[in-house]
Amino acid sequence: MRIEHVGRLLRTLSHLRADQVWHRVRLSLRRKHWSRRAAAIDARYRARAAQAGALRWDDAGLAAFARLRAEGRDPERAVAVARDALAGRFTLLGETRALGTPVPWDRPDLMQALLWKTHLHEMAWAVDLAIAHRATGDAAYRDGFFALARAWHDAEPIGQPGFSRVAWNERVVATRLVHWSAAGALLGLRAGEPDADWLGREIVRHALFLRDNLALDLLANHLFRDCVALVFADALSGAVPDAAALLEREVGEQILADGAHVERCPMYHAVCVADLVDLRALLGDAAPAWLREALARAAGFLEAILLGDGDIPLLGDGWRGEVDVPRLLAQARALESPRAPAATHAASGL
Prior knowledge:
Layout: H1 3-13, H2 18-35, H3 38-51, H4 60-71, H5 75-86, E1 89-92, E2 95-98, H6 114-122, H7 125-136, H8 139-155, H9 170-186, H10 194-212, H11 220-237, H12 243-254, H13 266-283, H14 289-305, H15 325-335
Helix pairs in contact: 3-10, 4-9, 4-13, 5-7, 5-8, 6-9, 7-8, 7-9, 9-10, 9-11, 10-11, 11-12, 11-13, 13-14, 13-15
């Protein structure tokens, strides 16, 4: 480390809790250890996933969630994205890269566009492939999804050098888990089909890995997304029995009394509302009262801070386009009645 970086490091540490520093050290040491035992670590997670219960592809809540995802996507746009994905071409964050086939998931220059690479590995485009298959009936989109997912799987074992930077970054894992679940549901997968059983095991493997590698060093929206994904996976497989308790704790800490998200960043707030909407759709009438209450308050706060054009103010670390806010609020209203922030609440200071 350069001497000029020491001051920055010390200033950063001064804002962290002791347990965050501990978890950063713990996770860093674990990753180094795992990189020396990659084959054994990867095999262990495969074995654990194989022993877990099968994913319930016929779950009514999963179907409801998948419909929600499909309703938010224009079929023609989905077909265009899917066609590009089959050719190894991806447009993410407004930038198109033609990676070719097979997709070089870890091409060195992609580390110069780390957020773009992160979105590539999160695989939101998997949902577009599934929607394209439904819209056109063309099996090439279904086959293409599984070809890309299996190619990624073969190229990205847990524990290989750099595995936690992008491919097995906990937030990427949590996000990909949900996208793959939506894609599988939209493809109409059912237990007993080879592709369905393989994808189900992969989703469970993601959940088991995620439970062991929560963002306890970063906290905030990262840990929120992690816990949402764990509840999602547990609802479909029973693989993470403490998932609901973990998320309830995070909701209690991160959704403030007036409905604001603890980071006071409108984009992060909208992302967390989207996570709650997804989970509320999945759980249906089984959604616990604390989740429904949090969604009502958070959606109400989001509605209250929108600008005249109906989009979020650009405060803090954020940009527009990450979330379709009008559509998100329409989905939230269909599930819970948004509750406007009470005048007596000033928990967020906003």
